[in-house]
Specification:
There is one protein chain. The chain has 16 helices and 26 strands. It is α/β, with parallel strands linked by helices. The protein has 2 domains: 193 residues, Rossmann fold; 212 residues, Rossmann fold. It has a 6-stranded parallel beta sheet, sandwiched between helices. Strands 15-13-16-18-26-25 form a 6-stranded mixed beta sheet. Strands 19, 20, 21, 22, 23 and 24 form a 6-stranded mixed beta sheet that branches. Strand 11, helix 8 and strand 12 form a beta-alpha-beta unit. Helix 1 runs parallel beside helix 2 and helix 1 packs across helix 15. The radius of gyration is 23 Å and the shape is globular. It comes from Lacrimispora celerecrescens.
Length: 512
């Protein structure tokens, strides 16, 4: 059976996902075969495995840090919010439908066997499993039938490291309050405290660390600085969606529309790593400015987000920019919005939107939502592309599709791809282009080597700017450097010897 360590937090966005990813990389570097695990994740960022199954993007990132292939067992339950009180429920990579929060809360106990089976599968295949909790274990209104925090720790026989966020203030109250709201047997499972996102002189913090250790009788496992690493974030609470991501040596400005139900916003993170590019996420016309390139991202509720843009004026502003020859690119739901119409005859995403909803009319496509979700990995190449991005022609593309609906076009496709998941060899056409407007269903389209830089070079050429291309850019190599950098910073700030001792000397029962 695999050794385990669980990362829980005092709140959402305390840094659990990043620390879990860093531990995955450290254990990999130390020669262990390691897997991430999160029993229940709530996020609109998702990933498609080689088998065509859907899982949380955060666990896919952690698997990448661990150097292993992502698999649905690493995230057996994924909740994708459809509104403020309900979510699509995905179990073992397949949607079982939408549920209001109260209905799911009553239903989730039925999923415990699925969680146990997924964990058992990983436990038989890996040396170490890094488990991530969700939110806080001290949500006393949610503790009954918990399957993601202390409930999961008990199922997995996992010692817990509790992470507090000092950047938001009140870290000692966070740690103390969380521990004191737990049951005695739950308190006993917390083997270390981590103060995360620290800035400043640690010697000033030391007296507080000594006091909290004494009051809780739990050792400090580390004080982690506010880390300067570029790792894909889990959801819209992350810093990447707050204003400008990069401004160094800015020559071109790329704007992504931050819709209320934005999904897979990590599709565009590659641009934030390229010099000369400023990447901004905006949700108001007043913040749109005069960008060089506008991107419409994926959305969990395409029609609602299209109507949101229509109501707040962003649609009209984008149409004006496009009329001035500013290129526009849509991914997945953004691609659907750029078309002529969207229909939802089975009310899969909307209530009562049976008749076609008018699209933005920039691409000659029509979309009809069906009952089945497309989930597939694809690989292929761009066709003969026109417009400002004509140099994309013939370049390889790779990624995955997660969408409701089938889209028909009256022009040639943007790409020819082949489904490359296990057992499928279906050739298909994807996306389209008209003028300087482009659309595709492929998440990860910009990540493939050469795609993002070709776009940046085309934008520079349009502005009459010559770029100094003396350094070849490879996004995959860049990500590897970031994982190694994350691991190095964690090694310097965590008591790794103590963490290994916690993992290898735990005295709890085996998985129930």
């Amino acid at each position: 059976m695999a050794k385990t360590i669980m990362i829980q937090g005092t709140m959402s966005n305390a840094g659990k996902s990043l620390i879990a990813a860093g531990l995955c990389r450290i254990f990999k570097q130390d020669g262990y075969r390691v897997a991430p695990f999160k029993s229940q994740n709530m996020a609109l960022n998702s990933y498609i495995t080689e088998e065509g199954l859907e899982m949380g993007r955060a666990q896919a990132v952690q698997a990448e840090a661990a150097g292993v292939k992502p698999e649905a067992a690493m995230n057996p339950i994924l909740l994708k919010p459809t509104n403020d009180i309900g979510s699509q429920v995905i179990v073992n990579g397949i949607s079982i439908g939408n549920m209001p929060a109260r209905e799911y809360f009553a239903y989730k106990k039925n999923l415990v066997p699925e969680v146990k089976r997924a964990f058992q599968k990983l436990s038989e295949e890996y040396d170490i499993i890094v488990i991530e909790g969700a939110g806080s274990p001290a949500e006393i209104n949610l503790k009954q039938d918990d399957i993601v925090n202390m409930g999961m720790a008990k199922m997995a026989d996992a010692p817990v490291l509790l992470v507090g966020d000092i950047d938001r203030g009140g870290v000692f109250a966070q740690l103390y309050g969380t521990v004191m709201l737990l049951e005695p047997d739950e308190k006993a499972m917390i083997k270390g405290l981590i103060v995360n996102k620290f800035r400043g002189d640690k010697t000033i913090l030391d007296p507080g660390l000594e006091m909290i250790e004494k009051q809780l009788s739990i050792p400090i496992a580390g004080v982690v600085p506010y880390m300067d690493v570029d790792i894909e974030e889990e959801d819209s609470l992350g810093n990447h969606l707050a204003g400008t991501v990069r401004t160094e040596r800015t020559a071109m400005e790329i704007v992504v529309i931050r819709m209320p139900r934005i999904s897979n916003f990590t599709d565009f993170q590659v641009f934030s790593t390229i010099p000369w590019v400023s990447l901004r996420y905006v949700d108001r016309v007043s913040d749109l400015g005069n960008p060089d390139f506008v991107i419409l991202p994926g959305s969990k509720s395409t029609v609602q987000d299209l109507l949101w843009m229509r109501e707040n004026g962003l649609e009209a502003a984008i149409l004006k920019l496009q009329a001035k020859d500013v290129p526009v690119f849509g991914i997945c739901g953004g691609f659907q919005m750029l078309g002529e119409s969207i229909s939802d005859p089975f009310q899969m995403e909307t209530d009562g939107a049976v008749l076609p909803v008018r699209g933005m009319g920039l691409l000659p496509v029509r979309t009809v939502f069906g009952k089945e979700k497309t989930r597939t990995r694809v690989a292929g190449s761009c066709t003969s592309v026109g417009g400002i991005f004509e140099d994309l022609s013939g370049l390889d593309v790779e990624g995955y599709e997660i969408h409701m609906g089938e889209t028909t076009r009256s022009v040639p496709p943007l790409t020819y791809v082949m489904e490359c998941q296990s057992g499928s060899h279906l050739a298909k056409m994807d996306g389209c282009q008209r003028g300087n407007v482009y659309g595709t269903y492929i998440h990860g389209f910009f990540d493939k080597e050469g795609i993002a830089m070709t776009i940046v070079e085309a934008l520079a050429k349009k502005k009459g700017i010559t770029l100094d291309l003396d350094v070849e850019f490879n996004y995959q190599e860049y990500k590897e450097e970031q994982y190694n950098r994350l691991a190095a910073q964690l090694r310097a700030s965590l008591d790794m010897e103590g963490i290994y001792e916690i993992m290898f000397t735990k005295a709890m029962s085996s998985v129930k």
